[in-house]
Amino acid sequence: MNSVIFLGTPQFGATVLEGLIEAGYDVKAVVTQPDKKVGRKQKIVFSPVKDVALEHGLPLYQPVRLSRSAELADLMALEADFIITAAFGQFLPTKFLKTAKIAAVNVHGSLLPKYRGGAPIQYAVRNGDAQTGVTIMEMVKEMDAGDMYAQAALPIRDDETSGEVFSELAPLGRDLLLQTLPKIARGEIVKKPQDPSQVVFSPTISKAEERISLKMTATEAKNLIRALNPDPGAYLMIKGQRLKVWKAEVAPDNSSLPAGHLLTNQGRFAISFADNTVLNLLNVQPTGKKAMPIKDFLNGQGKKFAAGEKIVDED
């Protein structure tokens, strides 16, 4: 079986790595991002890819930046048949990519050339796309610009979060990769170049983009909430306090009130948005507290708000 150097970090990558191991590929090395400190206690957390590597006793590398690391020479010396990435999170040096005897391949979470970059799934959900997918592509110096070997599409339900789409895309990407690698090795695939006129970029979501804007319609706000669930979460500024919103729905009714006003806090927490649309908040998280159903939030804080009052701060 062909040899592989695998690079990845989140669960998406871990699923792909597990597939390669189970299929019998000779994984000569695994590269993942350095461990992170999480929470108030700064607990050290391993990446899902690291967990898989440790479980199978695979050689593991965690450089802060691969291109300037001492580990790069060791990896280049392996001269694996394939270099495979799946949500790794770093650019790879061209000289490293050229050491692959057969091909350097990326499992990308979009239907390229749409959504090149680090947040393709979040962009697809935020933009309300009806589908996304995975692309098996050749890695080149330019970000996600290589020729394509194969693609598979996945529908997106209108209530799905990015986390749920990630979970569905991971096995799709794994299976498509395992179907494609033998064909690449045998020279049976004709690579397809990307159409430059159709390129759309999906850079990492900024801190400013996490805030739900009053310029949004209820549908746009709902889609942002879905896109940033489970991480980092979208939020509203309610009377000077940050309120994360983990789930919401577009209400069937309209409102004549300007955006940011409360329609009712009786049985639901309904807020007006652009174009007379209304958003019902369903699951929220006040600062310093755990996420909770809107019923629990209203039982504790509902009396602070009055129907017809403007409660959302301008952005």
UniProtKB/TrEMBL annotation:
Pfam families: Formyl_trans_C, Formyl_trans_N. (6S)-5,6,7,8-tetrahydrofolate binds at S110, L111, L112, P113. Residues 205-301 form the Formyl transferase C-terminal domain. Residues 4-180 form the Formyl transferase N-terminal domain. InterPro entries: Fmt, Formyl_trans_C, Formyl_transf_N, Formyl_transf_N_sf, Formyl_transferase-like_C_sf, GART_AS, Met-tRNA-FMT_C, Met-tRNA-FMT_N. Keywords: Protein biosynthesis, Transferase. It is an enzyme of class 2 (transferase). Transmembrane segments: none annotated. SUPFAM superfamilies: FMT C-terminal domain-like, Formyltransferase. Its EC number is 2.1.2.9. It catalyses: L-methionyl-tRNA(fMet) + (6R)-10-formyltetrahydrofolate = N-formyl-L-methionyl-tRNA(fMet) + (6S)-5,6,7,8-tetrahydrofolate + H(+). Belongs to the Fmt family. Attaches a formyl group to the free amino group of methionyl-tRNA(fMet). The formyl group appears to play a dual role in the initiator identity of N-formylmethionyl-tRNA by promoting its recognition by IF2 and preventing the misappropriation of this tRNA by the elongation apparatus. This is Methionyl-tRNA formyltransferase. It comes from Lactobacillus nasalidis. The lineage of its organism: Bacteria, Bacillati, Bacillota, Bacilli, Lactobacillales.
